[in-house]
Amino acid sequence: MKKKLSFIVLPGFDGMPLYDVLVFFFNGLFKGVITYRAAAIAFNFFLALIPFVLFIVTLIPFVTTPYFQVDLLDLLDEIIPSSVYNLAESTLIEIVSRPSSGVLSIVSMLAIYFSVNGIDAILEGFNQSYHQTEIWPWWKQKVQAFFLMLALSILVFISMSLFGFGKDMINFLATRGIITHKLTLLALIGLQWLIIILSILLSISLLYYFGQQKDREVNKYRFFSPGSILATTLFVFGGVLLKMYFENFSRYNLLYGSIGSLIILLIWLYYNAIILLIGFELNASIRKSRSEAVFKYKVVE
């Protein structure tokens, strides 16, 4: 098995054998206290999520794009567990329907503060990787977290604008009789999931690419990395399965009432935090494997 894996080189692994990468990868998972780091990220995510979502939703009434509000709420309902969405649905709809500059200013300050802390927790989780040797000073990490938060916020609005444009285009083709009603529904579902997957991939790639120190003399850095692709795949498929479990088999709401929705939210955040760290560990393992290979080559010379 070892010999077979030693001859397998996957795309994006910088020419490193699969066996070498897997050795570093599993060392990083088991020796890098990934569950504790994920718990810290999930807690900060929990504090940041509500202000950040409220901030985005508060901006929505000022956007004049038709059905922008409905599209965003539909996407939120598609991504997060239904019980969690139902808990906050009435509040979100009220904010969407009544724009208020006073609410916006208060929520904006809370959103910026907690969102930066949430991104900072992710970067700190990356820094605690078993293979991570270069880390930022705390102030530089805070600045990086702030700009990443802005980039992710812009990405949300771009994604929603693309979804709205694509939806209008599909409806236009349907009204002209170019595509059938059944094909229209399939196209809308496909467009929705395409936007979701691309948004997740871009968000994770942003975090991985700009959320770490880089030694460019030894390692190559790609924006779309094996780690970001793995994390996106686990996020989408694992998230769908987790949502199905919560909706069909879970009894948290029956046992705990509305508090059960918060428990589900924390589990969902914890799962996604683990996914982020797993993808980062894969990238770190590829870099570590390459660094070791370069070091051995220099020693031989």
3D structure, described in words:
The chain is mostly helical. It has one domain (33-284). Helices cover 79% and strands 0% of the residues. It is built from 11 helices and no strands. The longest helix is centred in the last third of the chain and has 42 residues, at 259-300.
Q: Compute the number of helices.
A: 11
Arithmetic mean pLDDT: 74
Distance between the ends: 30 Å
Low-confidence stretches: none
Strand content: under 5%
SSE blueprint:
Layout: H1 2-6, H2 18-31, H3 34-59, H4 68-79, H5 82-97, H6 101-127, H7 138-175, H8 181-210, H9 226-248, H10 252-256, H11 259-300
Helix pairs in contact: 2-11, 3-6, 3-11, 4-5, 6-7, 7-8, 8-9, 9-11
Concise structural overview:
The protein is mostly helical and 301 residues long. Helix content is 79%, strand content 0%.
Notable traits:
single chain, 301 residues, mainly alpha, 79% helix
